[in-house]
Structure formats: structure tokens, C-alpha cells
Amino acid sequence: KLSFVVYISYIERKFEISEGNSIVCTGRVNVLQEIEKKDLAQCCKEEDVKSLPLDANDVYKELKLRGYEYGPNFQVIIGADMEGNKGLLNWTGEWVTFLDSLLQFSLLHAPERALSLPTRMQKLSIDPVFHKKVIEKSQRGKH
């Protein structure tokens, strides 16, 4: 069983995640500027979703050819393009599978079919308010 400890310094706006005596992740927490925020209508265009050339079977077949075998809990990509620019995910409420699916998207764009593992991430921006709005909009469309 793994146990992680998360330390957040609100004054310095930094965080640190450790497991045992080892630091596994560090970073900064920043407030997004208004100019960086996306428009919900532009983000979730229905025609973009309908035009995705790869369905879930295609995506995970391609990833398997590259050496990755994802179990059912981590197969959350419903559709994608080959460039890794657009895709549709099944939000399960689990951040681990969500963040892993972002890495899966980047693998689809890689030109070679070789196994590669991420060792660092330069920048990751998540706007939790916008994320919640996208989820709510997609759930309204299902009912």
C-alpha cells in the first residue's frame, strides 16, 4: 500500500508530494490569468466530438501496438484524433485516471511506436472551476 504526503505552502505557493522519505513531485500553484481561460462553448463543440476519427477500440489498439496495456479502469478515452489535439474522455470522478489519460493522448501524437515513460512534466494547468463546468455541460447533454 502506497501512502503519499502532500505539503502545500500557501505563502510560497509551492507544493511537495512525498512517499516515505522520498520526494516524488514538487511544483508551484498559480492562479490562472483571465487571458489563459478558455471559452466553454469553444471547448466543447459537438461537431469536433463527432468528427474524431479514432474510437476507444482504435485508441487502445494503437497504444497496445506501442507497448502499453491499460486495464479497464484506465481506458477512459472515448475518441481522439491522431495528432493528440482533440479527444473525448469518460470522466469517472478519478483524477489519477484523468491525468493518465492526458499522457495517453500525448502518446498518440508520438511519431514512433516505441515504449516511452514520462520522467518530468514542465507545466500542467488545471482550472477546477472550468473543469467542473465542462463536466456539468457534458452531463446535461446525456440526459
UniProtKB/TrEMBL annotation:
InterPro entries: PKS_dehydratase_sf. This is Fatty acid synthase. It comes from Trichonephila clavata. The lineage of its organism: Eukaryota, Metazoa, Ecdysozoa, Arthropoda, Chelicerata. The gene is FASN.
